[in-house]
Design goal:
TIM Barrel, eight-stranded parallel barrel, 11 helices, 14 strands, globular
Length: about 425
Amino acid sequence: MAAGGWSATRKDCRRRSDERPIMVPETPPAAAAGSATGGFYQRFVGPLLRTDAGADAEQLSRITLGLLGETSLRRHWPLVRATLDGLSRDLQRRDPRLQQTLFGCRFANPVGLAAGFDKNGVAAALWDRFGFGFAELGTVTWEPQAGNPRPRLFRLAEERAALNRMGFNNQGARGVRRNLERQQLPPPGQRPAVLGLNLGKSRQVSLDLAPDDYASSLEWLSPLADYAVINVSSPNTPGLRELQEELQLRRLVERLRRLPACPPLLVKIAPDLEDDAIDAIARLAYEEGLAGVIAVNTSQDRLGLENRRLAETGRTLAEEAGGLSGRPLRQRAHEVLRRLRATAGPALPLIGVGGIDGPEAAWERITAGASLVQVYTGWIYEGPQLVPAILDGLLLQLERHGLSCISAAVGTGLAWR
């Protein structure tokens, strides 16, 4: 165990010298949507995403998750199993160079699904079939919540971005636990993909009572979680971001750490923090022994798109509430991650998220200091072929830089070749 409670078990990864080179294809096969799954997605779903006024974004997500949820419950049926096996062959990349063990969890690869898509964990058993090394479920609150009024999810197709003000709509911790138990998942540590649970504050709970509210959710869900994330950075719950302030966050972490069998704890931060606040979180993570930091959530900054109008409302982004995600967030997310790495040093595991929509963006975040990366908005636009495209691209970069595994690239600053 490293100082402050950080630990990251990694293989001996050095630059290759006299070893026989591992051959990686010059062009990642999934990068051009060459897979059957990717081709299907781009043909039938892609056209719905090419304009702001296409299929309703929230309705499309709801239909997709409904289908995935039913599939997860029936995944052992022969026909369903055969279909999922074909999906796995298409999208998974099983390569030991991509593996890492971080905060006690073994990751088959460094690409994960970010929180916000599978809010209620209905498809928890399927995410490895899409090639993910891990998936983060939630955000989950103790009480069930309907979320904010609609419309609350908007597509910005030209910018490959989204604006959301969902407001932690979810079935509550007890409902999510029922969903996970119905799927009869293997226990933590024995799953093909690591499962994290992202926890938020119930809307009606005051900041003073927030630690107990988070603790109720974590106590109920911890037996099913490989790791847990303290979400104090969503812009869509009034007052939530105040919990990023050092004293508030320390009080919250200390309350959760007192729970029996507490899983590894990470905190997810906003991209809109000032440098001194980022530094304070890095220090707190060290002092409290947090397992890692996820950077970043969606942004309240409009990132140069202040005058961009939403087709559904006719108002500009400057006039609309909600968090911005996708490609416009890439630069700021990268800057926050670099700041965290510089302040925290090399031991604290970081997860990079925000604007990652291709192999180069993922490599950029890893070489800036992220051990893992997550995708969401980019995955929606690019489709299922994004994950294998990223993994193929990472393997290609390892070969071109003479590195034997992905952890050897973390924080190196090596350029994309």
